[in-house]
Design brief:
Structural class: alpha/beta
Number of strands: 14
Number of helices: 11
Shape: elongated
Radius of gyration: 20 Å
Low-confidence stretches: 1-8, 21-28
Mean pLDDT: 92
Length: about 350
């Protein structure tokens, strides 16, 4: 039965993602993470803030977070260093980076955890040393942090499903027509991804026609753009495919590239963030493309501001701050709200 409860949806998702993780494990060699490098000019005597992101190269999303952190360091007069991993599944390297930041004398750490569960113990350890921890983009399974700046991902997933249904309907897909929707993720262990999928399925199960099927085979690219394109091509081979959903920046890039390469102008692409690839589909006008735009610049910028305030003994008024989202498509891209959101993308 299609209209199942949210609890059952969550169980199905966990099982599906576990299978996805097993199928991709070991396919990519883990590269050694880079040493911390300065984002700002380094001035002796200033506070040192260490930023750890999920992906250090090839992602416009994480570059914007770094841009925000850099500007925050300049505006709030502190030193900002950064590093990260090459795969979103490489949580062991995040552990090493947390230890390295602490050993280097970090006054505070900004962390985008690439495993919400496995990193919780290390986050506890770092926070107990008296080092303020500001989480960005993704929550962790611990209370040992001072504040988290991120998207309300359950709500964002619901917006993605709403946009998919809207775009399919606008494109003339009848409620009685049997069609398929494909999904891929960047990582299987991220609470962010699980919440986006949960939100998507909650909305989809309530409002999508029964004959519109989500393909159970959820693909996982582990943060690799090349793998994301392969996953996209596999899903686009399904005979009744009419829509694809990328739950993060890399997955969306993979879908956008595959759709553009094949000139599939009858496939609805709904994704996250504003990469060159998804922007190209939206600007073209001949494709069916939408993206959920996050405020990641604010995550980096305000994350630095809060980290510095914490080093000065200030307390955060809340543990979680929703940074908001805006849906972008060819019909609304010229609206003032959307243009303002695109300023830092």
């Amino acid at each position: 039965m299609k209209r199942i409860t949210a609890l059952l949806i969550s169980v199905i998702l966990c099982l599906s993602l576990s299978g996805c993780a097993e199928s991709t494990a070991g396919e990519q060699e883990t590269k050694s993470v880079p040493d911390f490098a300065p984002l700002t000019g380094i001035v002796e005597g200033r506070k040192n803030i260490y930023l750890i992101v999920k992906i250090v190269e090839g992602s416009s999303y994480w570059q914007i977070i770094m841009d925000g952190a850099k500007d925050g360091g300049i505006d709030f007069d502190c030193n900002v260093y950064y590093s990260g991993t090459y795969l979103e599944t490489d949580w062991e390297s995040h552990e090493k980076l947390l230890d390295a930041a602490a050993a280097a004398g970090a006054d505070a750490i900004l962390l985008a955890p690439n495993d919400s569960v496995n990193l919780s113990g290390k986050i506890d350890e770092i926070h107990k040393k008296g080092i303020p921890v500001v989480l960005i983009d993704t929550i962790a399974n611990t209370d040992s942090y001072d504040i988290c700046y991120m998207t309300d991902n359950l709500m964002a997933g619901q917006k993605a499903a709403e946009e998919m249904i809207s775009q399919l309907t606008k494109n003339g897909i009848a409620e009685s027509e049997s069609i398929q929707i494909g999904i891929q993720v960047g990582a299987t262990s991220s609470q962010t991804i699980i919440e986006r999928l949960s939100g998507f399925f909650q909305y989809w199960s309530k409002y999508a026609p029964d004959s519109w099927e989500v393909i159970p085979d959820i693909k996982c690219n582990e943060g690799s753009i090349d793998k994301a394109v392969e996953c996209a091509e596999e899903l686009l081979a399904y005979p009744d495919i009419k829509g694809v959903f990328g739950t993060n920046n890399g997955s969306t890039v993979g879908f956008a590239r595959a759709v553009r390469d094949r000139e599939l102008k009858d496939i609805a692409v709904v994704g996250f963030d504003y990469s060159e690839e998804i922007a190209g589909l939206i600007d073209d006008g001949g494709y069916i493309a939408s993206t959920i735009l996050q405020n990641q610049y604010y995550m980096g910028y305000t994350g630095v501001e809060s980290a510095l305030a914490l080093t000065e003994g200030q307390k955060m008024p809340v543990k979680f701050a929703d940074t908001g989202v805006v849906v972008v498509n060819k019909d609304n891209i010229d609206q003032s709200e959307v243009q303002e959101a695109l300023l830092h993308n």
